[in-house]
Give the backbone structure.
Amino acid sequence: MKVVVLGCKDFPAFKYGKDVGGIEVFCNDVLKRIKDIDFCLFVKKYKNAPKEDKIENIQIYRIPYVDFPLLRTVSFNFLAFFKVLKLKTDLIWAHEPSAGFFAYFLSKIKKIPYMLHIHSRGSLESGKLLRKLGLRFLESFAYKSPDKTIFVSENIKKELSKKGVFIPVGVDVRKFQNKNQASLLKFFKNNKKICFVGRLYEVKGIRYLILAFSKIENENIRLFIIGEGDQKRELKNLVKELKIQDKVVFLRTNKIESLFPFMDLFVLPSLSEGTPHTILEALACKIPIVASNVGEIPNLINQDYLVEPKNVEDLKDKILLALKEKYICNLDKKYLIENVAKKIEGELR
């Protein structure tokens, strides 16, 4: 059986590109565990990356793209569309509406099924009007007639009122076992360390975390913002305006295994989410969590540490409470990557 995968921007995750999020980590962890299916994966062509690559049963095609915020994802899926037309495949597995839009037309032309994998609320998320309208157009086709639909969140499935199955994203707990601490953190050994990990986009609500952190009157606490994205410059400027440059550290995500386990608190102030992979990683690392009351998050952490999106004062209070109480939630076995991969393989067949 051969399956074309659309919508994943980088593979292997973190090797060549910096546009890595939950979908990329998910595909990276799941595809390597499914050995009896041949995958054709279309990802972005980053500098120094070969045009084609093969890792066991995974054929990787790297596609050029337009490096502009509204066109990055659509442009590389558009060019991938013409590549897929020439391939013999049994199924198209599309992640998110942009890939689903092209999967819809490919399925009609090639007369093969497509499976849509929904990781977020799409056009229902807050954001700029032009982006919402664009997503709504893509969704009008992507949601039209998939043969199967997978949701990473029960709440998103209910909100979209679509048929499908709930399969959460999973985490590889072994990645965080017996890891050496990043040398950078040795300079902060006497500080309490709060971190955010993820893409630096508006929907992640990082602005509100910075505002909440600026209100904490404790010189011993440091905030680590780990990730890349379009908001990075804006967020750095906000840190300067608030005059907290000496307390906030911006880092890349390529060595997360040597950072995450050594943090005192993980904060995810998102405006919208599915099942955040970073929360599962924090649970695997056994560190306290404060997060927004959105998506699948209420089913993952203690209710006392949930905050409503954009509520700066409540976020500040919950951060201080979590640092004091050090409450740690357990990771349910259904979120282990081995169990998730088995369920995904069942849907692919």
